[in-house]
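Milestone M4 deliverable, item 7.
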Amino acid sequence: MRSSLATGLLFFGSAVALAAAAAVGCTVVTTDTPDDAGVYEGGSPDGGVPACTSCLAGECAGTWAACLTDPACRALHACGGTSACVCAADAPGDAGDPRGLYRAFAACNDARSGGACAGDCKAASSTTPAPCADEDAGAIDAASPDAADAGDAGEAGADADADAAAPAPAPAPSVDGCASCVSGKCGDAKKACALGSECAAYLACVYAAKDAAGAEDCRRLHATGEVAAVELASCTNAGCTDVCGF
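Output delivered:
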C-alpha cells in the first residue's frame, strides 16, 4: 500500500513538472524549416530587415536609389525581374528606358551577393535579365567600313580622320565602375543613405513592397528617407548614367 502511494505521488509530481516546463516553452519542438530560400530577402514596412537586404542596400546604394525611386523600374522589380517580364515592359517614356536601370540594379545585387555581402546573402544563380531584342539589334552604321561602298574611299578616309580627333569612348558599364562613380560624384548623398539611416530603411522597405500600395506605405513611414533616396537617385542619374549602364 505504501509502495503504491509513493508511485502515485511520483507520477503526479512528474506530470506537474512536465506541465510547468511546457508552460514556459521548454518542450517546444518543431521540424518546420523557414521559407527563406530567396537570396535578396526584403524586410517589411513594420518588421526587421534581413542582413542581406541591408548589405546590398549599402553596397548598391546608387542603383538601388535610382531604381527604387523610379515607378517603372520598381514595377520590373515587383514582377520578378525575369527576362520575359523586363522585355515586355512598356516602351521608354520621358524618364528613359527602365530596363537598363533595372539591369544595373540587378547586376549590382548579383555581384555583391557573391562578394562583399556573401556572408549575409545566400548563393544563387544570376538574376540579371539578358538584353532584349530591340536593345542589341540596331542597324549597321552607314559610316562604318562594313556598310561603305568601294567608291566611297575618300569619304571613309575623312571619317577616319574625324574619328581620330574624337574623344576616347566612355568606359564600358560595370558594377565596380558604377560604385566608384557614385562614391566620387555623390559622396554626401550616398552617406545620407548609409546603413542605419532613414534612407536605407526606406530603400529596404520599398525593395520588399509587393505593389504600388506597399511603396506608398514606405513613403509614409520613411518620408525623410525618401527625400534622401531621391537626392541620391538624381545625382546618380546626372553623373553616372553611362558607367552604370542606364
